[in-house]
Design goal:
This protein has 116 residues and is mainly α. It folds into two domains: 70 residues, Winged helix-like DNA-binding domain superfamily/Winged helix DNA-binding domain (Arc Repressor Mutant, subunit A, Orthogonal Bundle), CATH 1.10.10.10; 37 residues. It is 80% helix and 0% strand. It contains six helices and no strands.
């Protein structure tokens, strides 16, 4: 299960930050994560060893995680979706106090953070 979760996480990171990878990394990640090709299949296509493909996949995934640590775009997106769902549920049930609470929470989340 952890492997499937990690695969999904890397796919999400690739959606957000894939354009920040170099062309070779982006292509190998596309083949591995989106086309679901094996390391051996990719090595045959690219004319490099299976070990080289594996190393590039791991390096690129680490780079994607590094981008997320710095930019936190995926975290912000997921938090926004969660707040949106909670607000929708509160409005649908006419729970105005809950809707107001979610809006206050959302406003705090959207406020710039002081990094000093």
């Amino acid at each position: 299960m952890k492997r499937a979760t990690d695969h999904l996480n890397v796919c999400t990171l690739l959606d957000f930050y894939g354009s920040l990878l170099n062309n070779r990394q982006r292509e190998i990640m596309r083949l591995f994560y989106y086309e679901d090709l094996s390391l051996a299949e990719i090595s045959g296509i690219k004319g490099i060893t299976r070990q080289a493909v594996n190393a590039q996949v791991h390096r690129a995934a680490d780079k994607l995680r590094e981008f997320e640590r710095g930019l936190k775009l995926v975290r912000a997106y997921e938090r926004t979706k969660e707040l949106q769902a909670r607000l929708g549920a509160a409005v649908a049930s006419k729970s105005w106090a809950e809707a107001e609470s979610v809006l206050i929470e959302w406003k705090k989340f959207e406020e710039p953070k002081d990094n000093n």
